[in-house]
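Late entry, written up from scratch paper. The run itself happened at the end of the previous shift, but nothing got recorded in the book at the time, so transcribing now.
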Amino acid sequence: MTTLNALLATPGLAWLIFAALLALTELMVPGIFLVFVAAGAAVTGVVTLIIPDFALTFQVAVFIVATSAAVGLGRRWYLNNPVPSADPLLNDRAARLIGEVVTVVEPIEAGKGKVRVGDGEWLASGPDTPAGAHVRIVGATGSLLTVEPVVA
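Output as recorded:
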């Protein structure tokens, strides 16, 4: 208990240990973004070490502001330095369908109908086409596929 009491007596050290634990968790569990929260905790720890009688309310306020700033800076950095991907359409299923030939299941009339993609049906827009005809997907907006008739 004396270690815990010493830790609570030095809140700046507690914030720095919290930051280190968050950073270690970030390293051990991929896919989460605790590094920004760890940066906020580290800044709070340094400020609390510099100003030892810093009230807990202000420590939490510094933590929130520092974490928000870290997230903002990280977001700006990632937007300015995108990570190249071997498959840029990985999470855009509709865009991955462009070029596929599919079958019309509900006639496309007045520009709207449905097509079968795999074992599902998708809304489609394009020129009037009867059910059973084959069309090529040429575009996608959300879950609406733009199609055109396949010319033999």
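The two ends are 81 Å apart (CA to CA).
(Scratch paper discarded after transcription.)
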